[in-house]
Specification:
By secondary structure, the protein is of the alpha+beta class. It has a domain of 118 residues: LuxQ periplasmic domain, N-terminal subdomain (Beta-Lactamase), CATH 3.30.450.220. It has 10 helices and 9 strands. The chain has a 5-stranded antiparallel beta sheet with strand order 2-1-5-4-3. It is rod-shaped.
Length: 410
């Protein structure tokens, strides 16, 4: 272990304040991480369910919208099939040149109101008699015309006209309630324009899209810039593919499907914002908690440090306890190296020293008692000796002749 790491570990072990601060940060960070994870997971699941329901609803609504649109155009073709001006063009080839300009103006005014009309084609016995878009576009298209006229009654077909795909709606013309043999009127709808008008509000989110595709799975407008991701989707019927939530619906009575897809980035964007907000809120909570802990731990540990310092100085002054770092480290080994451990070590040393002093006082008191006994015995002996000396002195004095007695003898 390097010296820097060792010194950092020593500082950590010797400061309860640092331990409290580090513990608080760890707890708050764990709580923030756990809360952020739970919030993000729940938000993702909730948003995914909401987006899935929205995509499903948009797909169903879009399919109904397209179906209603086609039904309305089919009704228009039904009217054209019995229109007298159109029947006049077909009935008398000699007068067709007279009626064609009027038919063209009539259909042109109608096309101005409905920009999705790609062409209106009138066919008799496999030959194109009139085209709103111009007869030049049908030159050399006998095979296509044969395919259109040979389709089952009421069936709609998808045809490629240049760079666009069109939906052909066919009706047999009716003269005075009688169907005309091999005479048909076709309405060709530009599906790119129809898609832009019908599905412009059906795209979920910012990166999602709604589009028309044929039964083979090919987009009606594959070059449209709004839906480049469709090329990655091999199976539009799946519900989750290539980062998209996808719902597809068939358009009734038409060889078309509607696909609505929500990009998962639109789902994850609110989650990312929520996670960012949670992280910022958690960081603010950690900072606030750390500030509060710095304040409160300072108020808690400062008196402990002061008490420990005063106790050590008192112990040093009164009892001469060790005040060196080595002595303190030895005393703190059993109780820890922080402020509380240091204070506990000082009190433990004081307790042991007090016990030693108590034992020493007891021994001293015992010795004092012995000394007092010796003193009493000595005093008794001295008193006896003094009495004996007094007796000896009296005896000696009694043996000495008195002066008066000596004078009487003389």
């Amino acid at each position: 272990m390097s010296d820097d790491k060792r010194s950092s570990l020593i500082r950590f072990n010797r400061s309860i304040r640092v331990q409290l601060l580090v513990g608080t940060v760890i707890i708050l960070a764990a709580v923030v991480l756990l809360a952020t994870t739970l919030i993000a997971r729940n938000a993702t699941q909730t948003l995914e369910r909401q987006f899935s329901a929205q995509v499903s609803q948009l797909a169903s609504q879009s399919a109904r919208t397209v179906a209603d649109f086609i039904d309305a155009r089919s009704a228009t073709v039904d009217l054209w099939a019995a229109d007298t001006l159109l029947i006049s063009v077909v009935r008398d080839p000699g007068l067709s040149a007279v009626f064609l300009p009027g038919l063209a103006r009539y259909l042109a005014r109608y096309a101005e109101r409905e920009p999705w009309i790609g062409d209106v084609l009138l066919v008799k016995e496999g030959q194109a008699l009139f085209s709103l878009a111009g007869m030049e576009g049908w030159k050399g298209q006998d095979a296509l015309i044969a395919r259109l006229t040979g389709a089952p009654p009421g069936e709609m077909m998808l045809v490629d006209r240049g760079a666009t795909r069109q939906l052909a709606i066919r009706r047999q013309t009716v003269d005075r309630g009688v169907p005309m043999d091999q005479v048909y009127v076709f309405l060709l709808l530009d599906l790119a324009v129809a898609q832009d008008r019908l599905l412009e509000d059906a795209s979920p989110g910012q990166a999602g899209f709604a589009a028309l595709y044929d039964p083979a799975g090919a987009l009606i407008t594959p070059t449209q810039g709004a839906i480049p991701a469709f090329a990655k989707i091999t199976d539009p019927q799946t519900n989750d593919h290539s980062g998209y939530l996808i719902e597809a619906r068939a358009v009734p009575s038409a060889p078309l499907h509607v696909v609505v897809a929500a990009d998962r980035s639109d789902i994850n964007a609110p989650v990312r914002r929520l996670v960012l907000f949670s992280v910022l809120f958690g960081a603010a909570a950690i900072l606030l908690g750390l500030t509060a802990m710095i304040y409160f731990t300072g108020r808690v540990t400062a008196p402990i440090r002061q008490l420990s310092s005063d106790a050590r100085r008192e112990a040093l002054a009164r009892f001469g306890l060790p005040n060196s770092p080595a002595g303190r480290a030895t005393a703190q080994t059993e109780y820890g190296e922080d402020e509380v451990g240091e204070l506990a070590a000082v009190f433990a040393l004081l307790g042991r020293t007090t016990d030693e002093l108590t034992n020493a006082n007891a021994q001293l008191e015992s010795r004092n008692l012995e000394l007092n006994d010796s003193r009493r015995l000595l005093r008794v002996n001295l008193d006896r000796l003094e009495r004996e000396l007094d007796s000896a002195r009296i005896l000696q004095l009694s043996m000495v002749p008195k002066p008066n007695a000596l004078l009487g003898r003389q």
